[in-house]
Amino acid sequence: MNWTAYLDGYCERLTPGLWGEPLNSLSNLAFLIAAIAVWRQPKGRVFAILIGLVFLGSTTFHLLATRWSAAADTGFILVFVLYYAAVFPHVFFGVSRRLSWLAIPVFLAFTAVVASLGGGMYLSALIGLVVFAVILKGEHRRRFALAAGVFGVSLSFRTADHAVCGNFPAGTHFVWHLLNGLVLYLTATAATRRAASEPDAAPSRHSD
Questions:
Q1: CB 175 within 8 A of CB 156
Q2: 39-46 contacts: CB < 8 A, separation 24 or more?
Q3: pLDDT at 134
Q4: Does the keyword Transmembrane helix apply (predicted)?
Q5: What pLDDT, on a 0 to 100 scale, did the predictor assign at position 199?
Q6: Which of 63, 124, 163, 202 gives 111 a disulfide partner, CB atoms 3.0 to 4.6 angstroms apart?
């Protein structure tokens, strides 16, 4: 496989080149802003680093448009999603760390099922946010409901990118970045605030 091969996957990109996707590249600043905001919160360092990696991966991909940068983009997003799936039971329900990490293979299996039905990682993540909103209460329910709503709209913009090319050459993928910066901020702060209010559930503690 040629990992340096050029990929043209978005409406905005017309030719190879570092600035072939200016809006798609600059809109990744939403992830950087989210990472900085989460970093400043108690218990937020790990989430901030993971969001920062999403910023780096996505920016690199939309600047270079190569196969290896696409893998980095998807890979860093997957790392955030899997880490969140692993810490969610521990932070919100006090499940032991050892058992909480089992959420990773469960999520991967669920994603495989969704993919077999025509969906994928993003659809399974959206379903996960909806489930989180349903099973939680109070402030956390509202935060995850908002995150699910924003992510649903974001996913629609991602899907519509090529469909609008004829009328809007810039496409809509940049909106996916802007809204997902908010989604990552909402989900990360939900976990950090819960961890800060319940010291025994904090992600930084080593406990079973």
A1: no
A2: 41/189, 41/192, 41/193, 41/196, 42/192, 42/195, 42/196, 43/191, 43/192, 43/195, 43/196, 43/202, 43/203, 43/204, 44/188, 44/189, 44/192, 45/204, 46/83, 46/203, 46/204
A3: 97
A4: yes
A5: 54
A6: 124
